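chain below, 214 aa
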Amino acid sequence: MPFEPTPTHVKSFSDISKVEVFSTVLKFKRWQECIFSTLDNMPDQKTKVGAKILPQWTYANKVCRRTILSTLSNELFDVYCNIVAKKIWGSMIAKYTTEDSVKQSFVIGNYYKWEMKDDRDITTQIHEYLTLLEHLKGVQIDLPESFIIGILIEKLAESWRDYGKDLKHNVGSMSFNNVITNIIIDTIQIGRPGECQESTKQVYFKCQFGGDKE
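prediction:
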């Protein structure tokens, strides 16, 4: 967020009460947008043409610097407290957008490489898939339901291939939860290699009724 001297400056400090304190746990992009919104909503005060620009820049730097520092965790405040607003902003963009990008690539890679196996409990593998989807959402990747259904069917283990082909014919009328429920029901009724029947039943009842089977 570069600060170029302009013939205007804000007349009061911004209201940061609704801005969440930024730490390494919070997503940088979300915090960044909150700061943009806060500064954009501040009133402008027009100045006369030809007025000196330096006092305006000094005041603008003070406002932006205070806004940024007031929304940082104590740990990050200690890092940036002696730096002007422009350098704080540039440093944070360079550091945290790179970190977000690396994390996003890592999560995408895990999702892409994941696959189901015949010798593992189907319940455990479904939980793994749901966890991968939550990790994707955590890095601002929200995939269409039809896509995550299609990937799950494609990732079914070898012994499920015929079942997966049949499932594809009905997938247009099914939700993601319906697909998972159908897989679990099939596991309970028919049984598959490496399945833990009791844990599979528990997952089924949680999907259907939101609680454990008595």
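Residues 1-11, 193-214 have pLDDT under 50 and may be disordered. The longest strand covers residues 8-10.
thats it, cya
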